[in-house]
């Protein structure tokens, strides 16, 4: 039946400015069920207290509208809410109102308070059993994490990230858990990862970056077969990478950096054909470059720096045709750098510094995408600059601590070069090719044997 009442108002992304007057006709719309003011600019104004008069509201979205100050306690009058989104850096919500929302709003399915300063202890009991999506990231939550959220029967997304005062250990996970995404990154949650983590069979995102976890990763991680993003970086995990990770064939992101993993990097990657990002840097891995990595034809970012890998790079690294970043710096890799590495068609950053490479092909093919190249602190010598002369789109080149020669008579041009590091290279002559470089802003030729006057470059 048509009543003539306004029940929905969507003013999101409407370039609204200024403040909402307390006597605005907006608050006369007592039948309003949906109000969306997201992505506007109410800079320096607070959320009006009269928002509490809209008792029939079921959906309220004030995200990223630059409200400031305290969120009015009258918001606790909106007990019919199904969805509450207040993404707001600069807003504050008192603890009592926060508890009212989680205890008395029994129909609530979505609550997103990202950036709101709650400064409250994490709730022990939650009555809103309908909750499906909870985002309390960067809300200054504190205290000890409890089972409260993990017992919610309908919960699919839980984000508690960015609350560094949130402590405790991860509770044992109930087998009936329905979680799809769990993000507790940048918190103080610690202890060992419980074996029950493997019961989260529906999980497709697990982010525990920069927490305080220790011990080994349980083999049960292989049960999370729907996983797409798995990030355990910057913790204190030890032991080996469990081989069961090979079962996570839908992974697009695997982050294990900055832990204390040891042993060889297991050849477990041939099943992970959807992987785009692989971070294994800053661990204690030994042995050779893991051969099955080259089968990951969708890989875009590969970082294995700061380990103790040795041996030569495989020639068939050319299979990584979509690679944009390759960082193998600070290892003990040796031999000749295959020319195929430089020829990867989408590669923008190649970092091989602080290894034991002894040579590369005399002349490389043109690569229009390679911008950052680090080859310092290897055992390279001779006509390196001439060998690299076809890499004409370089903006950063680091050949420090190499015994290189520069032939004055041969034309070398790096027209877009911005950073050039040639310290400790036994240079006897100033690199005259720099006369053709108009974009340079950082030049390091310290600790060489250059004599005479510095030529005018411009």
CATH superfamily of the domain at 1-167: Ribonuclease Inhibitor
Which percent range describes the beta-strand content? 15-25%
SSE class: mainly beta
What coarse outline follows from CA principal-axis ratios? Answer: globular
CATH architecture of the domain at 1-167: Alpha-Beta Horseshoe
Would you tell me the overall average pLDDT? 93
The helix content, as a percent range, equals: under 10%
* CATH class annotation of the domain at 1-167: Alpha Beta
Q: Counting H and I runs of at least 4 residues, what is the number of helices?
A: 3
| Rg over C-alpha atoms, rounded to the nearest angstrom | 28 Å
Number of strands: 33
Major β-sheet annotation: 19 strands, parallel
Low-confidence residue ranges? none
Could you name the key traits of this structure?
23% strand; Leucine-rich repeat, LRR (right-handed beta-alpha superhelix); 19-stranded parallel beta sheet; 33 strands; 458 residues; 3 helices; mainly beta
